[in-house]
Specification:
- This protein has 2 domains: 198 residues, NAD(P)-binding Rossmann-like Domain (Rossmann fold, 3-Layer(aba) Sandwich); 107 residues, Alpha-Beta Complex (UDP-galactose 4-epimerase, domain 1), CATH 3.90.25.
- Helices cover 39% and strands 18% of the residues.
- The chain has a 7-stranded parallel β-sheet, with helices on both faces. A two-stranded parallel ribbon has the order 7-10.
- Helix 5 links the parallel strand 5 and strand 6.
- The structure holds UDP-4-deoxy-4-formamido-beta-L-arabinopyranose.
Length: 327
């Protein structure tokens, strides 16, 4: 009954690994450490290797009695995916096929997959439910949509059962500030706001304040990384109990604007957040947030933490780890 977590040394993966260990579940991490950090594993078992190394994965599944796989390992930089698409097709799509083939060769039939709300592109209606059309607007998002489709065919042809979790905007850090988001790599809003507030980066550039939203800035659904981790545990249990293949949105159902994030950071940190309003960023949806009804119905999951708790945990982590895991 051991769970294999690919990409488990990354941001969301490491939070899941810690949660699983706190529940006394057996875990093995497979990670190349190209982008992950061994320190984030807090001593969990690590095999350094690639999901495309079929021999390694088959041997690992067999020797460790793997019963299910949580698959985080992927590239996730949207901009890079448009410049180097082959890197994304190879790792995110072909790599997942290799992983699944190795799992099946070893008799492992349960997979939880890291998908993304970006499979829906700019949603025509919010909140976004799982029946919204797949309409990816980047190579990265397309890799996630493709894998979801591929997994549906593996369900039909090979009885591989999977849960694709479509993350909204993952953010925050562990409550005790022991693990969090790597300082050097992320260009997402919340880490950028933290860095600017700590004087480690120039002022935050707010990408447009003339959108048709209450304060003119874009709206997103920020979801605490430990709430996300909990959704994975429930997805694993769903599969173990014989549940079927499904795609689920993982969000709070509440939209927050860029200025909401800045104001929350000011409340939490007691500091002014340096920012300037600049032009809109190409391709930004005005507003996207999840309809979490289906995940609540299927997994009994709902978010427990709101924006202030997300920002407070991010602040505790970033202000005590000025150089991320190199601090
Ligand atoms: C958030 C908001 C920006 C930076 C990402 C991934 C996507 C999916 C969800 C994983 C937006 C604004 C940002 C800045 C700003 N995740 N912003 N100034 O674009 O919602 O999507 O998370 O699969 O694939 O790309 O996240 O953090 O870049 O932006 O004003 O310097 O903050 O316009 O409204 P995004 P983000």
């Amino acid at each position: 009954m051991t769970i294999l977590v690919t990409g488990g040394a990354g941001y969301i993966g490491s939070h899941l690994v810690r949660t699983l260990r706190s529940l006394e579940r057996d875990v093995v991490v497979l990670d190349t450490l190209e982008l992950g950090h061994e320190a984030a594993l807090l001593g969990a078992e690590l095999v350094v290797g690639d999901i495309r190394d079929r021999e390694l994965v088959v041997e690992l599944c067999r020797s460790r009695g793997i019963t299910s796989v949580v698959h985080f390992a992927a590239y996730k930089n949207v901009g890079e995916s448009m410049l180097e698409p082959a890197k994304y097709w190879r790792n995110n799509v072909a790599g997942t096929v290799e992983l699944v083939e190795a799992m099946l060769a070893a008799g492992v039939r349960h997979l939880v997959f890291s998908s993304s709300c970006s499979v829906n592109g700019t949603p025509a209606v919010v909140p976004v439910d799982e029946d919204a059309p797949l309409s990816p607007e980047s190579v990265y998002a397309e890799t996630k949509a493709m894998v979801e489709k591929i997994l549906r065919w593996y369900d039909v042809t090979r009885e591989l059962r999977s849960v694709s979790l479509r993350y909204f905007n993952a953010a925050g850090a562990s409550e005790d500030a022991v693990i969090g988001e790597d300082w050097s790599q992320s260009l997402n809003l919340i880490p950028l706001v933290m860095k600017a507030t700590l004087g480690k980066r120039p002022p935050v550039q707010v990408f447009g304040d003339d959108y048709p939203t209450p304060d003119g800035t874009c709206i997103r659904d920020y979801i605490h990384v430990d709430d996300l981790a909990d959704a994975h545990v429930r997805a694993l249990d769903h599969l173990a109990e014989g549940g079927g293949t499904v795609s689920l949105n993982v969000g709070t159902g509440i939209g927050s604007s860029v200025l909401d994030v800045i104001r929350a950071t000011e409340r939490v940190s007691g500091r002014a957040v340096p920012y300037e309003v600049v032009g809109r960023r190409a391709g930004d949806p005005v507003s996207t947030y999840a309809d979490p009804a289906r995940i609540e119905a299927v997994l009994g999951w709902r978010a427990t933490k709101g924006l202030d708790e997300i920002v407070a945990s991010a602040w505790r982590w970033h202000s005590t780890h000025l150089d991320g895991y190199h601090s």
